[in-house]
Amino acid sequence: MSKIIGRSLPNIPWQEKPKGDNAPVWRYSGNPIIGQDAIPTSNSVFNSAVVPFEDGFAGVFRCDSQSVSMDIFAGFSKDGIHWQINHEPIVFEGADPEILKREYRYDPRVCFIEDRYYITWCNGYHGPTIGIGYTFDFKTFYQQENAFLPYNRNGVLFPRKIGGLYSMVSRPSDTGHTPFGDIFFSQSPDLVFWGKHRYVMGTVNGDESAWQSKKIGPGCVPIETDEGWLMIYHGVINTCNGFVYRIGVALLDLDQPWKVKGRSAYYILGPKEIYERVGDVPNVTFPCAALTDADTGRIAIYYGCADTVTGLAFTTVDELLAFMKAHPLDAR
After folding, report:
1. Are 84 and 75 in contact (CB under 8 A)?
2. Average pLDDT of the chain, as a whole number
3. Cα(33)–Cα(20) distance, integer angstroms
4. How many CA atoms within 13 Å lie on the side-chain side of 31?
5. pLDDT exceeds 90 at position 80
6. Residue 57's closest CA among 131, 110, 106?
7. CB 46 within 8 Å of CB 73
8. 153-169 as b/e, with b when 16 or more CB fall inside 10 Å?
9. What is the pLDDT of residues 98-107, one digit of tens each?
């Protein structure tokens, strides 16, 4: 059996795998857990991130308004399933006023490192880039300098320093709808200046793993295991009916995370249910957070559905690693 390296989380949201279900990931029967009208002004709530906080959970949520402007909001939950989301977006303090000026904000991730909760998101600064901020209490938020030049999306921090440096995976992109996309690794001594950029992995041409043939990008905060960093990510195929977003899994080296130890040719979750197939952007399952319990190996994945609502799914570290090893992708 594989082991998650981290904290125990006895109150992790959980539902047992249905009998006869052979998939490595299974959906919560009460999905979607957050509807598109979770706050009075929202058109949609999706692509959001949650973490354990105090005796429950907290999160940062992408809430597109009824004018379809994109911003991020704090929220709280006792059980990780039923959420109360603030009605006003997060207001950041600090940084240069030029950086604080909001162009747009979307697709947040939250990562606890050392003594605080770091938030990364797609920040608008003459195009998409990676914003970085932090909070201690999900009430007051501080913004730092953007990590990269435009254009970049899907900046995801590792939950501890690697080789004495903060580490992040991201997906360099362009100013449009990103007709390409590979995952890269970067490091920083202070979360301000980033370098040591390394290629991690890219799209897959041909039909060996066509679901990730157009672009890929990091999803949840990487999960440390005794075999390596478990990375849950998204992949996209361009079909005659547009893009389809699915979820995959890879295993990265613990000390050199740009080295891929394993990767599944098959996706672990894709659009199937009506709330994943129908919405503002049809056929999207997009992971942004994973809660883990080191004692049991359980994993609860939060994912955006059809760019409209938020879903919850379950798996274990053993399920994911066994599935990856059973269906390996030879082309890295």
Report:
1. yes
2. 96
3. 24
4. 26
5. yes
6. 110
7. no
8. bbbbbbbeebeebbbbb
9. 999 999 999 9
> How many CB atoms are located within 10 Å of the residue 132 CB?
26
Sequence-distant contacts of 136-143: CB under 8 A, at least 24 apart: 138/53, 138/58, 138/60, 138/74, 138/76, 139/74, 140/93, 141/74, 141/90, 141/91, 141/92, 141/93, 142/92, 142/93, 142/94, 142/95, 143/92, 143/93, 143/94, 143/95, 143/99, 143/100
Averaged pLDDT, 73-90: 98
Instruction: Delimit the domains of the chain by residue range.
Output: 26-326
Asked if residue 131 lies in contact with residue 105, where contact means CB atoms within 8 angstroms, the answer is: yes
Q: Please answer whether residues 264 and 329 qualify as being in contact, where contact means their C-beta atoms are separated by less than 8 angstroms.
A: yes
Average pLDDT over residues 192-210: 96
Main-chain dihedrals φ then ψ at residue 323, nearest 5 degrees: -65, -45
Span 271-292, average pLDDT: 98
Tokens of 257: 């995370």
State how far the Cα of 16 lies from the Cα of 24, in Å rounded to an integer.
Answer: 12
pLDDT of residue 332: 47
Neighbouring C-beta atoms of residue 13, cutoff 10 Å: 19
The DSSP call for residue 16 is P
Query: Which amino acid, residue 305?
Result: C
| pLDDT, position 262 | 97
pLDDT at 70: 97
Average pLDDT of the residues in 30-36: 98
Q: What is the DSSP letter of 147?
A: S
* CATH class of the 26-326 domain in this structure: mainly beta
Q: What is the mean pLDDT of residues 109-128?
A: 97
- Residue 319, C-beta contacts closer than 8 angstroms, at least 6 positions apart: 24, 25
C-alpha to C-alpha distance for 198 and 276, rounded to whole angstroms: 33
Distances from the Cα of 57 to the Cα of 181, 193, 321, angstroms:
32, 31, 27
> Edge-to-edge, what's the strand order for the sheet holding 166-172?
152-157, 166-172, 183-188, 195-201
pLDDT at 328: 97
- Provide the token pair at 208: 């060996």
